Structures are given as structure tokens and as C-alpha cells.
Amino acid sequence: MKWYQLDVEKVEQKLHVVTNRGLSPKQVEQRRKQYGFNVLESQKNISKWLLFLKQFQDFMVLVLLAATLIAGILGEYVDAIAIMVIVLVNGFIGYFQEQKAENSLEKLKELSAPMANVFRDGKWEKVSSREVVVGDIVRITSGDRVPADVRITKSNSLETEESALTGESLPVAKHATPINRDHVDAQDQVNMGFMGTLVTRGSAIGIVVGTGMNTMMGQIASLMVNTKKVMTPLERKLAELGKILIVVALFLTALVVVLGVIQGHPVYNMFLAGISLAVAAIPEGLPAIVTVALSLGVQRMIRKKAIVRKLSAVETLGCASVICSDKTGTMTENKMTVKELFLNGKQLYVSGDGYDIRGDFYLSDTKLDEKYPNLQEMLMYGMLCNNANLQVKKGKYLVDGDPTDGALLVVARKLGLTAVIEENYRIVKEIPFDSDRKRMSVVIEDENGMRFLITKGAPDVLLPRSTFHFNASGRARLDAVDSQSIQEAVGRMADKALRTLAIAVKPLAKNDSLETSFLEKDLTFIGLYGMMDPPRKEVKSAIEECRQAGIRTVMITGDHVKTAKAIASKLNILPEHGLVLEGHQLNKLTVNELKDVIEDTYVFARVTPEHKLKIVEAFQEKGHIVAMTGDGVNDAPAIKASDIGISMGISGTDVTKEASSLILMDDNFATIKSAIQEGRNIYENIRKFIRYLLASNVGEILVMLFAMLLALPLPLVPVQILWVNLVTDGLPAMALGLDKAESDVMKKVPRNPREGVFARGLGYKIITRGIVIGIVTLLAFIITYQNNPDNLVYGQTMAFTTLVMAQLIHVFDCRSEHSVFSRNPFENMYLVFAVISSLLLVLIVIYWEPLQPIFHTTSLNLRDWMLILGLSALPTVLFGFTKK
What we know:
Calcium-translocating P-type ATPase, SERCA-type; 884 residues; Calcium-transporting ATPase, cytoplasmic transduction domain A; ion transport; 31 helices; eleven-stranded mixed β-sheet
């Protein structure tokens, strides 16, 4: 269908939709069944069977399976079946770990998917872009991704960047007029918006004419879907470490086998023991466990209202040393309320808070009504030059759109003005707000055909463009005294932490030019709105916690410098001698010059998004790891350049979200603090189970090596080695990944990003604990075997049980960098249950008679257990009181 050739009415008819009503829920459901979800077909996920079989592709596991096959052929059926069962169980554990990681990542993709504004059943609502169906009425604004192929029905200076589709990098101006030509290429279909393209300017309303694979983007989807999973830096580091550990483990295992054969042990027995030891000792599952730990941590972050888009951000969060945060909405509640007006040269006060439409107007103590000169006009102009809507949900008013626009609607309602007034006016042209212009303008035509311009924006931008002003007597020329009076009013409001917004008008003739350069000059200044966006209650304590964690908080805002200072002081961001830099000062500084003063600067006021990039670069030049927040499309470069890009989930544009690595679902600064805390904890938990796994593996190898060096019989048989690996490496290691943060996690300085995995004494702890675990296991074997030389199975059972118990006790020691006694073991009930379940698996093979011949075990008495527990606790007791 050549939608670009049809006028709006024809498109509506063909799609059975009315623009001013939208689709009904029933129509939406029917069309979803007909067309499916609005998604591009992606690369097929690996099947569950293949994922399961993948668990057995490791070379050492394949060798072990071959060895068990040989064992079966030689008649060692019991050992062969037992080893096969253990390998299968290990495979299932690995499968479920990978499946959980994949599911977590899929959920992340869904959570961070772009949203779309759709008009359904007479009201605007936000839905995931995958929920959009053919016939939906959608609204797109600057910074959005177009959610589907759309026939534009109404355009306000809309421009889209379509390089992903056409290769053309320059934005394309769009309109709603039909194109009466055949065979028009995509780049020339200027009344169409295409799925995945970026809105760089303006806004528009359109009808969805194609979704999913039935879009222009769908036709080239094959170029976009073959994405590979990118490993995080930590996963890469551990994969490299794993290769080194494999070589070391194989060397030591080979040494054990050679020594055993030299001492007269059967070659077959030593070969099978060696392979079993290698399988148990090589931490081939370490990268998979890291992925699971990262994804579990990410799930916890989601519960704390932070969506991680890139797993590598979890590692970087723990290194953050500076947070550059927007003020509005992030540090404040984003519930703008007009508290004061400056009109006719007088300061008026407005009662009422938040989005409550009850409130009154006062001049000193005198209550005002709509008869006060110019008051009704000022508030009406604020309603007309506005893109927000007021909605009622559960008896409360909510703002759909920009909070500043919402504040203008609420204050107009306080005077009794309603949306009905807007129906008497038609918007002829809109010049959207952007961060460079710092103003928004609309050309309005009333019911009599008279036209006028309304402009709202920063006072320092509108005042120089104004030639006239309104006073109590009417319109008059704006002189220096009047300008000074307005500037003083701006200063007074800013001192009270009020954000100021000016509004001005200009009468137009029917044939006047609609060029921006003509429209936005010789304005008539009407008045000022003074708005309060109160700081969030939890932000002050979050900033203090960040300070204790060695993280600096820097406020960045487009507001007046006095407003910025007032809020920064309330939140304890600005110290007594801290610097405040304004946008005009930043313009004069190079990155190198800014670098010299940036360590003493805590507030940046009147800045543009372009300044943010300079701020990020200056902090990075000083060696900081920078977290940068943003919401607008122009924030994307700074967010991308920062080490941790943070976008706003509520107010953020799709482009900013895509550039970021972290999305705040509640746009709240305190959520950044929680995410950093969680990021630090995830990294520490990964260190914990690296410490646990490797110390356990060192102990397993050394007990066999020491036994061979001392010319002793095998203290562990292959099936026991594999069972130890199964019961100790699986659940307890995973449970460590769920450990809560230590109490001092936010009292440490940020981690150095170049820090190695074994930094801060971790390597020493692994070696020392591993050696002692090996020694106590061998002691248990020697003591028992020497007293009962005819009962090798008894000695092996003691060694097997001691090794398991030493590891299960050691896991609690791994929970803290300090000592085992610094934490309550019952804080992590997952770990307690994991240890109990592992213990039960050991007791079953010791005491259940049908399993004793399979696992070469025998029942133990109370005295045996006293010896086992005494020896098992020795590594933890020896090192329990020390940090080293």
C-alpha cells in the first residue's frame, strides 16, 4: 500500500480508525492476533537440548566420559554408572545456571525497550513499542525513536534522522501532505515516519501503517539481528585466568598421576583419578557463574528501580568516583508548582502544592480573582503554549508531559480556566523548545481569525527580545527601569530556590511571515512564573552516603545560578568554598583549563547539554570514573562518553536510554546510590566465590599431591572427587553470589578499575586456605589409615568427609574481607540452606548402604565426627581472626 499517496481521511478509512478517538481495546487485541507483536525477527535462540548438550563439550568432561566407557567395558560397572550420573547432574546444574542467565538478559531487553505514546479509546497512554499495532494513533517528539512505520497526520516542525534506513545523516523535514507520485523512495516519503528512525526536532501525530517485519526496517532486519553476546571486562579477565588455571591444574594433576604410577598404583586407576581430579579442579564453570551472579545482581537492581542495559556497567559502578547529576526530577521531586507570579510590576503569591488544582492568588494579604489586570491573560497564554495534559487518576491530578508545562496548567486551573478555552484557538505553527534556544513558541489563531505569537522561556532569553511590556494600564514600551525591575524579580525568586519562566506575546497580521527569526523578536513581555520543585527527601542522605564512599556528587542544571546554589546548599552538595560555574563561563574554558578548576567545582548552572560533554572529559582527564545522568536527545553524547551513562526512565528519550548503560525507572538520585552500592556488592560477591572455588580446588589437588609425595595410598577415589565437586562447588558458590552487602561497602573508596582479580590479598587467601584444607584432609586420612591399615575405605571416607566439611565451613569465612566472626551466618539463608543440602548429600553416600559400595564409603561414629569437625574447622579458626 502506498500510504504516502493517501490523504489522512483515506488512511483512517482503510485502517478503520478515527484520529480523535483511536483504537478500542478490542480492536487492539484483534490486530495483535492478526499482525503479531511489533518486533523484528531476531536470531533464533539456541534450543534447550543444544544448551544442555553444550554442558558436555568441555574437553576434560569428554575424556572423563570416555574413561568411564572404558571402565564399563573392563567390568567396573558400579564406578562407571556412578561417574556418569554425577556428570549428568553437573550438566543439569550448568544448564539451569545458563538458562537463568539467558532469561535474565531477555527480561533486561524487554525492560529497556523503547516506549510509545499511543491514543486509545480517547486517551493518551504509554505502552512498550512492541505493543503498538496497525491503526494506532501515536505521538512522537524530539528524542523518540519512531515505534513503527507511521503516516504523519499532523506535524510541528518535525525532523527525523534516517541514517539507519537510508544512509543519509542529515535530518529530513516532515509534513502531513499527500505525495501524488508513484515509485517514491523511502528517503523522499516526507509524510512518513519509519520504524527505528530518530526524531531530532519537533513533534508529530501519525497513524501506524506497518509493524514488525512489515516495516521498511523489517525489510533490512537481517542486517541488524546477527548480534553476538559481548563479554564484560570481568568475564574476559576470568576467561583468561581460567586458561592459566587449567594449565596449572593439568600440570599438578599429571604430576599426581605420574607419582602414583611410579609408586606402583595401577595405571588405569591413576588415569581415572587424574581425570576426575582435573574435572573437579579446573574452574571451567567460573565465567558461567560470574554471568549468573551478574544477572542475579541485575535482577536485584531492577527491584531497586535501576535497569542495567549493559552487564559491564555493573563492574564499572563499583569504580565510580564522581556522579554528575541533573537537578530537576533526579534530585528534586519533578512536581513543579507555581508559587509566585511577577505581573504588572508586582509580586503575587499562589497557594497550594503539587498538582492539586485548589489554590488562591494573593497580592500581599489581598486575595485576587480573575478581574486583576492581565492575570487571566497570562495564565491562558501559559495554557496555550503548552504540550502537557492534566489527567485524573483515582481522584488525583497527574501530568502527562513536561512538569513545567504541567505547573502552568495547574495554576491556570486555580483561577478557574479549563481546557475548554483551548478549543477556541488553533495552533498554526509550533517552534519547539530545545536546550539551545531555551524557549518555545506557538502561533495561535482565535475563532475570529486573529493571530498572535506566544513565547515562553528563560527570562534572560526573552527579555532581550522584548520591546514592550504589560502593566496595570495596558501595553507600554519596555525601558531600562522596567528591565531592571524584572531582573530584580528574577533574582528574588532565585534566592528562594524558585525556578523562573518568562512569558511574552506578539500580535500578528494574517499575512505576516512565519519564519522564526521574524516571529521571536519585538515581543511584549507579560510576566514571570516562579516555580518550586522541592528536593526529594531521600536525596540528602544518599549524597552523604556517596561522600562517605569517596564519591563526589556534582549538580548540573539549566536553572538560574541562584536557584542552583539554593538547592545545592539544601542538599549539602556545595561546601563553603565550593565553586559554581555558569554556562557562559564554560564557553570560555577549554577542557584543559576546566580541568584545573573542576576538582573545586560542585555546581554547574545555566548549562546546555553540550557543556556536559566538556565536564565529563575534564573529570576523566583528572582520572575520575564518571557517572553522568541525562534525559534529552542532546545529552546522548555526554552519556556515551561517560564511564557510566545514566538515563531517566520516566522523562528520558529513547535515544538517551539507548546511549546509556543504566536506566533509572523512578528518575531518582537515591536510586543511583543504590545501584552503586549493588554494583560494589556484586563485584565483592564475585570475589567471594572465586576465593571459595579456587581455595577448595587447591585443597583437592594438594591432598592428592601430598599423598603421592608421601607414598601413601589414594586418599580419594575418582567417584569421591567428583561428588565433592558436585556438592561443594554448585549451590554454596551460587549462594555466595546472593550475599548481602557488608556494612562498610559504602565506606570504602571506589575500586581502581585496573585492579586485578587477586588484588587486596585475595591470592594469598586462596593459597593459604587451600594448603591448610589439603593438609587437614590428609591428616584425617593418615590418622585413620595408620590405625586401621587393613581398612582403606574407612580412611578414604574420613578424608572425603573432612574435605567436604572443611570446604562447607570455609564458605562462611569467604563471606567477609575481615573475619568469619564479623558477620552473622544467618544473614544469608540461601547459603545456610545450600550448605545443609550439600551436607545431606554427603550423609546419604556415607550412611545409605546401597550407595556405600558405589562411593567407597563406610558409616562413621561420633568419635570420627569429632575428629572430622575439629580438623575441618582448623583453617577457619587459624585465619578467622585476621584480615590476611
